[in-house]
Every structure is written in C-alpha cells, then in structure tokens.
C-alpha cells in the first residue's frame, strides 16, 4: 500500500514538473515573441530620432538649399519656382471675382464677393464637379470647353448669365499640375499627373487654352491669375492678416511658398517687380538632406514608388505615405512573431492603410483600444489581436506621426531662418537673438493632415517651441485656412484686375 502511495506521489510530482516545464516554456517563448516585437519598435524609434539638435541641422540645410535654388536653375533639390506674384491681396479689394480649381479628377468653380473692408470676411460660393473620365484623356479643347461650360452654368444660376457685368470679369485659375510660370497669368504645362493624359496640351500655355475656351463659350472674362495651391493659400492668409509671410500645404502631398525679396532671387536678376518682392513656390516635397532621419522602411517605400529618388521630404511627412510606413512596420512585426496570428496577405498590399485610418488608431482613447482592433480586422483581416499588440501598433503610429510633424516644423523654421524671421537675423545675419526685436510672423496652413489630426498639430507646435525657444516661438502664429487653394485664386484675380 505504501509503495502504491509513493508511486502515485512520484507520478504526480513528475506530472507537475512536466506541466510546470510546459508553462515555463510557454512563458519563455511568449517573452521572446514580445521581445522581438519590442525590438522592432525600439529600432523604429531610434531610426526616426528627431531630437532638437538634429532638427536644427535640418533647419540649416533647408535654408542653405533655398539659397542654392534661388541662385540658379537646377542648383538645388528645391526648385524655388518664380510665380511673378508681387502683389498680395490686403482686404481693400472690391467686387465679384471668380476662380476655377483643377487639382485632379474633381474641380471647383467659385465666386467671391469682396466688400473692400480690410479684416472683414467675404461671401463666397463653391460648386464641385467631377471631370468625366474621357475628358481627362481627350484633347485640350474638350477639357477646357468642359470647364468653361461648367463656369457658364455656374454664372447662369445667378439669374443673368448672358451679360456678365464689368466688375466680375476677372478670373483666377488654380492649376495643380507642374507648370513653368511665364508671368502671373501664364504658364507652360510641363507634364500631366493624377490620371490626366492630354498629349496636345503639354508645352502649351494653360491660361491661353482656358482663355480661348471662355471666348468660344461667349464669356467675356479674363484669366488674371494662374497659380498653384500654395500660392492661393498664401493669398487667403495675407488677405486676412498682413503679417502672413508663408503658406504650407500638409495634406495628401506637401509644399510651401513664401514672400521673398526680389534682390535675393539671383537667378532672375534684372527683373523689376513693383513691390520689390515675389512669392516663391519652393516645391519643398523634393527637399533632401543627410540629416533627415531615414529608416529601412523609408528606403523600401521609395524604391517601390512610381518616383524613386524623388520627393524625399514629402515621403516622410505627407498623408499619402504615413499610413503605408505604418503598414510596413506592422508587416515586419508579423514576420518577427506570431502575435498577429498567421501573416495576412493584406499586409503586403501597398497603400491599403490610409493615413486617416492610421490617425484613428493613433487617437483611439478607449481602454481596450477597440478602434485599433476594428481597423486591423477590417483592413488587414487580422482578428482577435491581443491588447498588448494593439498598444504596439499605437506606438508605431505615434513614432511615425511625431517624426513627420517635427520634420514639417523644421521645414517651416528653415523658411523663417532664410527670411530672418526666426530671431537669428537670417542665414547671413550676424546679430544675436538678444539684439533682435522679433516681429509677429504668420504662416498659413492648409491640408487635412494638419487640420484634422490633433496629435500631428500638437507635435508640430511642440517642435517649433523646441527649435526656436518659447520666447521666439510665441511670435510665430500658425493659422489654418479653408479652401485657400480656390478662394486664393479669386483674391489674386482681384489684386491683378485691370
């Protein structure tokens, strides 16, 4: 009997030890699994490092590249395109003006009523229309006849479209495609993007083609301004606040323009501008510097994009790309461990994770991160994700967004440094901060990534304070503009009305 008891006890002890060994083994494997995932996130954080010292290096590089781009064509990755806009609206404009905005598969027709009262708001109406697919690949005449007809219908809704009165003959045209500007109201199309392919249009004057269509449709209107979306945003900002010196687009793509002294634009020496200033379109999405914190995910994204080795800055800070960087990191975590279960084929699909969904995960404040779980299930078909894994995903979103916002802030300070608005006296100024009297400086900003993403805005403002110091940063005001890319064209038409 005693032997039986001893035997049972030994068996139980062996089984207990075996069970304990299994449990310990599982715990060890689990720790290893989570450690691998944690290492992926830690390496991402290190690769995306944007400490203030590095940001100041980016600021300096941006200012130097701006100088080089102003000195000669092709002298910098920054194109620093001349816009010939030397007269920004100031609120004294009066009358009714129209604008067209062609930026992709949709376009807008706008009417703005200005009352000539500075600092007051103005009435405006907007109508959005899709462009038929066949028109995007037809002829220039078909495209601009369609646009002119839409404008004529828009005007007719006022009541009397057959007789356009003298005070509403001026038209602004926002054309968001690569153009070599020849004057404030003319520019040559360099190439089509965004699904357009109208061969007979390339190399022709965009404004002239529109003007001809207006004449064919019996509209007595003049194209007074041809601009891109950043210039339109600057015009709206300056209309409301004369201290506005720059405009930034931070949305699906990104770009910047600013108010520059003509004598600083070496590549256009001899050009006389009434105000002594000109708006310069930087095309800053193409900015590059060795100081930018680039990771293996950025390198792979660039290599697999339709435009490798191009738009490097844009690929690190704009809404088109942030969601896909996050997707690539989640894929790496899935390859390193089974925390997400079997690897979903959807994780290998480029751009399936759009940035608005990434921001929704990032800003999920629920205790169990249920929005994170829903999005990962809906987009990648990954169900039953552990809470710990969801927290890692939120951390990845945070790292990628924080880097983007802080780099955008460094770009803004680079512009301010170039024009002596960063408290240092400019890139060639020798004065110390203590000798400077900081002027109020306004930067107009448009784009959903900035206006709709609260954490992005917070990180950008935080970086501005760090780079400039709070005493200087308090004089820099960031103002969101609405529909500046369209309304701004109408305001510029008013500024340049004959």
Automatic annotation (TrEMBL):
What region holds the Hexokinase C-terminal domain? 246-494
Q: Identify the EC number(s).
A: 2.7.1.-
Q: Which domain of life is it from?
A: Eukaryota
- Biochemical pathway: Carbohydrate degradation; glycolysis; D-glyceraldehyde 3-phosphate and glycerone phosphate from D-glucose: step 1/4; Carbohydrate metabolism; hexose metabolism
Example of a GO biological process term:
glycolytic process
Which keywords, in A-to-Z order, does the entry hold? Answer: ATP-binding, Glycolysis, Kinase, Membrane, Mitochondrion, Mitochondrion outer membrane, Nucleotide-binding, Transferase
The protein's matches in PROSITE patterns, at most eight in alphabetical order, are given as: HEXOKINASE_1, HEXOKINASE_2
Domain (Hexokinase N-terminal) spans: 41-239
> What InterPro entries does this protein's entry cite?
ATPase_NBD (IPR043129), Hexokinase (IPR001312), Hexokinase_BS (IPR019807), Hexokinase_C (IPR022673), Hexokinase_N (IPR022672)
* Compartment annotation: Mitochondrion outer membrane
What EC class does the entry list? Answer: transferase
Q: Which GO terms describe its molecular function?
A: ATP binding; D-glucose binding; glucokinase activity
Its placement in the membrane is given as: Single-pass membrane protein
**GO cellular component entries:** cytosol; mitochondrial outer membrane; mitochondrion
Similarity section: Belongs to the hexokinase family.
- Provide the protein name: Phosphotransferase
């Amino acid at each position: 009997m005693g032997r039986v008891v001893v035997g049972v006890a030994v068996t139980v002890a062996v089984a207990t030890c075996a069970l304990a060994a299994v449990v310990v083994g599982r715990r060890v494997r689990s720790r290893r699994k989570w450690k691998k995932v944690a290492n992926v996130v830690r390496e991402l954080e290190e690769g995306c490092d944007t400490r203030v010292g590095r940001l100041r290096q980016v600021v300096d590089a941006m200012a130097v590249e701006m100088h080089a781009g102003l000195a000669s064509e092709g002298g910098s990755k920054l194109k620093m395109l001349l816009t010939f806009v030397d007269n920004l609206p100031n609120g004294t404009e009066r009358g009714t003006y129209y604008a067209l905005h062609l930026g992709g598969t949709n376009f807008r027709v706008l009417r703005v009523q200005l009352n000539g009262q500075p600092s007051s708001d103005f009435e405006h109406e907007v109508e959005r229309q899709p462009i038929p697919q066949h028109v995007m690949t037809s002829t220039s005449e078909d495209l601009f006849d369609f646009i002119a007809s839409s404008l004529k219908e828009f005007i007719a809704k006022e009541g009397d479209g057959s007789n356009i009165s003298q005070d509403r003959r001026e038209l602004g045209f926002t054309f968001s495609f690569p153009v070599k500007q020849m004057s404030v109201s003319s520019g040559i199309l360099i190439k089509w993007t965004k699904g357009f392919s109208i061969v007979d249009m390339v190399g022709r004057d965009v404004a002239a083609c529109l003007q001809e269509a207006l004449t064919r449709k019996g509209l007595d209107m003049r194209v007074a301004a041809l601009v891109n979306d950043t210039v339109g945003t600057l015009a709206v900002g300056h209309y409301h606040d004369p201290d506005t010196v720059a405009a930034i687009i931070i949305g699906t793509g990104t770009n910047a323009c600013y108010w520059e002294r003509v004598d600083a634009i070496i590549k256009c020496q001899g050009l006389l501008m009434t105000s002594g200033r000109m708006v310069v379109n930087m095309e800053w999405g193409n900015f590059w510097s060795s100081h930018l914190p680039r990771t293996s995910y950025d390198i792979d994204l660039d290599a697999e994009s339709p435009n490798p080795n191009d738009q490097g800055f844009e690929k690190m800070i704009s809404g088109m790309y942030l969601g896909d960087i996050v997707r690539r990191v989640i894929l790496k975590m899935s390859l390193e461990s089974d925390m997400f279960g079997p690897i979903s084929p959807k994780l290998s699909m480029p751009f399936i994770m759009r940035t608005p969904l990434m921001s929704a995960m990032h800003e999920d404040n629920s205790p169990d991160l249920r929005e994170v779980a829903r999005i990962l299930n809906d987009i990648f078909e990954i169900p039953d994700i552990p809470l710990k894994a969801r927290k890692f995903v939120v951390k990845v979103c945070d790292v990628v967004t924080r880097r983007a916002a802080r780099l955008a802030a460094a770009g803004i300070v680079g512009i301010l440094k170039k024009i002596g608005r960063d408290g240092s006296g400019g890139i060639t100024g020798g004065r110390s901060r203590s000798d400077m009297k900081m002027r109020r400086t306004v930067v107009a900003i448009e784009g959903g990534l900035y206006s709709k993403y609260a954490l992005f805005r917070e990180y950008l403002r935080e970086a501005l304070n760090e780079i400039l110091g709070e005493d200087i940063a308090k004089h820099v005001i960031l103002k969101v503009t609405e529909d500046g890319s369209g309304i701004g064209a109408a305001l510029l038409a008013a500024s340049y009305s004959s």
